[in-house]
Hints:
Structural class: alpha/beta
CATH superfamily of the largest domain: P-loop containing nucleotide triphosphate hydrolases
Distance between the termini: 33 Å
Radius of gyration: 19 Å
Strand order of the largest sheet: 6-7-8-3-9-10
Number of helices: 9
CATH class of the largest domain: Alpha Beta
Shape: globular
Strand content: 15-25%
Bound molecules: adenosine-5'-diphosphate, magnesium ion
CATH architecture of the largest domain: 3-Layer(aba) Sandwich
Order of helices and strands: EEEHEEHEHHHEHEHEEHH
Number of strands: 10
Largest sheet: 6 strands, mixed
Amino acid sequence: xxxxxTSPDVAPPAMTVSKEVAIEISGxxxxxxxxxxxxxxxxxxxxxxxxxxxxxxxSGKSTLIxxxxxxxxxxxxxxxxxxxxxxxxxxKIDEIRRDxxxxxxxxxxxxxxxxxxxxxxxxxxVKKMPKKQANEIAMEYLTRVKIPEQANKYPGQLSGxxxxxxxxxxxxxxxxxxxxxxxxxxxxxxxxxxxxLDVMVDLAQSGMTMICVTHEMGxxxxxxxxxxxxxxxxxxxxxxxxxxxxxxxxxxxKLFLSQIL
Length: 261
Ligand code: ADP
Ligand code: MG
């Protein structure tokens, strides 16, 4: 039998989890008007963790990750990202947003800018990076997501899978410490899902701290170290992928898994 410790073919990818905390959410609540959308959320994410968040539509998954970079405001409890507590202090919100990349279901690229310009806009204007350096970094990330040849095209000229890979590259150009993904493959045609997941797997293996809302359970099994199940604004269950899928503890989790697997 091959020795797993010495054979590069079977060695596990370097996905180590640090003891340092990247995101700490405690006793967090959010309302939309009268509607209590997130209920007493506790979630601590250490550096290097890959968390997959799943749950029925309307359970609050998007709202939760949008709260982490202050796209939505929480009303009580605490959210701390890389040691910075999220309050209504705009300077802190800016700091956190620089640190946290976000990829949405619908790409959200700027249609009137080229792929390269989409990737360099924030580094140039937010980080005040010289244009030449921003271009070089953008080309590195476009190469990493395997579309450097598309740099001078516009988003409308690319397939959905390519646009989503640009969206990922664009986020990476800001050198985030944490990446949030909100159903990044659910608007894609099936044949394009893999090319985006491959990029996300690569990112996970590079040690990025990630929270991914996705129903791609193959991805969850491959890279997540923890799967979090939400229902009706609550975290119902949280476990490593293997026990989560093979031995879910709560009826709501069992029902959900029976519907999607
Ligand atoms: P998920 O991503 O799990 O599908 P969301 O976080 O998008 O869930 O939404 C959770 C609940 O909050 C849903 O009932 C949704 O209708 C409601 N909701 C989402 N955004 C808003 C908003 N801006 N105003 C009021 N209600 C909202
Ligand atoms: Mg959602």
